[in-house]
Amino acid sequence: xxxxxxxxxxxxxxHVQSNEEAAPYxxxxxxxxxxxxxxxxxxxxTEEVAAVVRACVAADTPVVVQGGNTGLMGGATPDASGHAxxxxxxxxxxVRVVDTDNDTLxxxxxxxxxxxxxxxxxxxxxxxxxxxxxGSCTIGGNLGTNAGGTxxxxxxxxxxxxxxxxxxxxxxxIWNGLRGLRKDNTGYDLRDLYIGSEGTLGIITAATLxxxxxxxxxxxxxxxxxxxxxxxxxxxxxxxGFGASLTAFELLSADCLALLREQFPEGPQPFLGVSxxxxxxxxLSDNHSETHAREAFEAVLGDAFEKDLLANALIxxxxxxxxxxxxxxxxxxxxxxxxxxxxxxDISVPxxxxxxxxxxTDALLQAHFPGxxxxxxxxxxxxxxxxxxxxxLDSTVDAHMANYAALSLLVxxxxxxHGGSISAEHGIGQRKLGxxxxxxxxxxxxxxxxxxxxxxxxxxxxxxKVVEVAP
Amino acid sequence: xxxxxxxxxxxxxxHVQSNEEAAPYxxxxxxxxxxxxxxxxxxxxTEEVAAVVRACVAADTPVVVQGGNTGLMGGATPDASGHAxxxxxxxxxxVRVVDTDNDTLxxxxxxxxxxxxxxxxxxxxxxxxxxxxxGSCTIGGNLGTNAGGTxxxxxxxxxxxxxxxxxxxxxxxIWNGLRGLRKDNTGYDLRDLYIGSEGTLGIITAATLxxxxxxxxxxxxxxxxxxxxxxxxxxxxxxxGFGASLTAFELLSADCLALLREQFPEGPQPFLGVSxxxxxxxxLSDNHSETHAREAFEAVLGDAFEKDLLANALIxxxxxxxxxxxxxxxxxxxxxxxxxxxxxxDISVPxxxxxxxxxxTDALLQAHFPGxxxxxxxxxxxxxxxxxxxxxLDSTVDAHMANYAALSLLVxxxxxxHGGSISAEHGIGQRKLGxxxxxxxxxxxxxxxxxxxxxxxxxxxxxxKVVEVAP
Lengths: 471, 471
Description:
2 copies of one chain form a homodimer. Among the domains of chain A are: 3-88, Uridine Diphospho-n-acetylenolpyruvylglucosamine Reductase, domain 2, CATH 3.30.43.10; 95-213, Uridine Diphospho-n-acetylenolpyruvylglucosamine Reductase, domain 3, CATH 3.30.465.10; 217-334, Alpha-Beta Plaits, CATH 3.30.70.2190. Helix content of chain A is 35%, strand content 20%. The first copy, chain A, has helices at 3-11, 23-26, 46-58, 113-122, 139-145, 152-155, 190-194, 228-242, 254-263, 290-306, 319-330, 332-338, 354-368, 397-401, 404-417, 436-439, 442-455, and strands at 16-17, 37-41, 63-66, 84-88, 95-99, 104-108, 125-126, 162-168, 174-177, 203-210, 212-213, 217-225, 246-253, 278-286, 312-315, 346-348, 373-379, 384-390. In chain A, the strands form 4 sheets. A 7-stranded antiparallel sheet of chain A has the order 15-12-14-13-17-18-16, with helices on both faces. The interface between A and B is large, with 96 and 96 residues.
């Protein structure tokens, strides 16, 4: 019997799609990669996932897992050989346990992130992971890529939000590691090995996640700075003054703000005529009250003005104003898209290196590619910048994009030289795989390969992603 | 040339000790295990650690790493065969980098925890890891065991406090993973695999640790509860009311308090005559001011009284009173020691299972071992109880301790049945190694073995600890 027929028998014919039927899943979000498959399968539960993996192992067939297909690195797109089975977890979308006394939530991997947030809120709790794609990405995808987002400063990456996992191994066995424990030192940390491994070591089918108290009040401000150095100094001041109440600190350059005004003339227009080169969106979460949040805000900002750590501040006076300020940050992707393609770099450096990185890299790019325009923004509180570069105004998008490899190399080399990472929150997938030889030591690559070979000796789980192994 | 002579040549004769000279390191803190070695070596730096490992690999000789020798599971004590080399990192005690803008500190593994705390404080920052042995344990040992302590509720275990590591591999190569990044998704999470692996996968030689703002004020209270269920409900209330300001919530039973009074008659005597069965030490850290901390305290406690979540509260009015309250918690180990040996269990369960676990296990032990006395205390905020059991008053310590295996089995079975862990913060070492077959699934043990074999194929790093591999 063929593998296709085997899979139909295991799952029911209606849950197994042909290559043609699976078309929507076979191109990545950016349209950069197009794959082919033997079949796309929609198992109903963890046991069926395990059965699919066992059938694929028996047929020596690769298994590629995909969540909401919102990744940027092609990590969830099978290759073009047509040899793989695509595993879709949309039917694993149950909330298994809500445990408010333990402040945990156990959900299946196919749950949409926004639904997980909603379930938490209905239970009177906060699940803080928040990112642009939250309406369509799945928690399984978030776990597979250790997703970041806008609340990392306070709550950490997906890794820090996870207590336990359920995983189907490369042999199609089920590891039940769904522990709701804050402390458990009984062996190797398998959980964190699977998180961020992009489906190359095992298939995450469920997770026990941490919940937090819902904040009683939030306060938002847009701040203006005379320099990037001032913004970094202010951040340190704000961390000391707000402590864990500081939940977001999102940087936007003046050029980003100008782009937003240009592309969204109907949108909010804060700080019109203000000449500062850098801005940041600051959010505070308070567990007392609106008044309390407001007082803390005014105390810390007032102190910052006195110490010359801040040039200007616009404090949201209402929820509507707060949402308008956040809309600036959220519109950045779309504003860039409307202005034409640009080169995106998801880098991170130590916060103490942000100023040096930006000034060095800006100058370097101007020397090699005169006139390119910098749209630098991102999660300054995490040292994570979206260091994006658009075409010179006297040139074309196409001419600019032709320089992608050479320009990106300069940016990544610079991030690396400043102690940074070439992928802060987007992962490696297939798109950055070729860069690892340049930025990882042979020792680290060897350790990664050994782990891949130990947990997936036949190299059947999402092959050709994250790490290259000898055929 | 013998390995001993090789090591002398590598490190200088004065840094290589014979088995006899190494005696202080060869018995564990509890006096439970006594080892023998070929040599104990004190390398000066990471390169020398790597050279020692390479020499040992060439001679097919196991390497056991030891920090401050304060572990409770015998994890740092070599076996009695006399075949191993003991690796001591006391000379790797440098602070490499203090980066206040990045809120990180890079230190070598041999640094004493208290010194790391002090270096952070001198830089105007907090390194929050805090535990009883902090004056003698090393940060390398904390990393190797993923140490917990009294600030986990707010700041997490050692794992959550660590951004990067430097590790010597089983082949004597150096992995430089000393990244000071909050976000880095460029491959498998080697860092968290080494943390908590108790020297069985690699030798941690340095780490980049997270720093936090120093709190401006702290407030401490001892609370009395009518039941354990009330204490758990109060905890949920306190988390919502205090948010991340809640830094400790340490449980003490009335029997613990009575024991403290008995063994430390000169010590603090709070709540004399109060009849509640459970107490908790609550600590709040505030980033505003003493007044602010005090107001938050009174608001949340007042609300708790109204909602019947609290029976009584004693708020420290001064630093001296706060220290007196903390002394209760800190004296618990010594109080038990003075009262004679007892059976200690370092378990954790989901917080929602704490009440069921304690009532079920108390009843079970009374049924099987009538009259045993329960001294239950610990980190309720993390679901981590030190569930300790002393001899019946009409029996002897020796008669009681003879039942250790049978009684502990009941306790561990019960923790496991309540979704818990048999080692919350003390690790596995050699002492709990035999228990893993009972409480870990074959799938998980197999995954652990595969990782051990992948990273230490010759089984030379701390063999016979954490995981058993086929000879």
